[in-house]
């Protein structure tokens, strides 16, 4: 299963890239995040592995996240024509996901965030979820992007939303 979603954020691209890359900010916009624990490497850098626990409703999902691309490595003074790439693979029982994030300038104070997602399911229960509810994955990706936009533009914290 594959899909692409995008959102425009009314903040400069360099600022958006730095906010996305900072692990201290993740709980403020990544709804359902319980744990994001570094296993090896330096957070956000190529090859880094982390243990991630997400809560969805009454269920928790534990997975391993591996950073497969981060360009440029330095998120300061990025030339306007350059595209910022964050890519990762997420593996959990019965599912593999690749997320390919691109940040492009949409203006001097605006950033276009495009997220390409690919899922592969290896267990029957996950295959059924993917087959019967493909829109749920896209909807969740858009929710995370909207939450990040609200955080980046207005400082809104999903933990305070009630």
UniProtKB/TrEMBL annotation:
Domain of life: Bacteria
UniProt xrefs under Pfam families: Polyketide_cyc2
Descriptive protein name: SRPBCC family protein
Gene source species: Paractinoplanes ovalisporus
């Amino acid at each position: 299963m594959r899909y692409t979603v995008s959102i425009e954020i009314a903040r400069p691209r360099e600022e958006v890239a730095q906010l996305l890359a900072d692990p201290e900010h993740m709980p403020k916009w990544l709804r359902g995040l319980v744990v994001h624990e570094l296993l090896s490497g330096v957070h956000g850098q190529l090859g880094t592995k982390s243990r991630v626990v997400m809560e969805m409703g009454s269920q928790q999902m534990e997975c391993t996240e591996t950073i497969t691309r981060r360009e440029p490595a330095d998120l300061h003074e990025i030339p306007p024509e350059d595209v910022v790439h964050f890519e990762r693979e997420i593996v959990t029982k019965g599912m593999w996901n690749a997320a390919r994030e691109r940040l492009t300038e949409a203006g001097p104070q605006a950033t276009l965030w495009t997220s390409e997602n690919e899922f592969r399911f290896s267990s029957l229960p996950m295959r059924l979820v993917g087959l019967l509810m493909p829109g749920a994955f896209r909807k969740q990706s858009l929710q995370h992007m909207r939450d990040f936009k609200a955080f980046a533009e207005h400082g809104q914290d999903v933990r305070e939303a009630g």
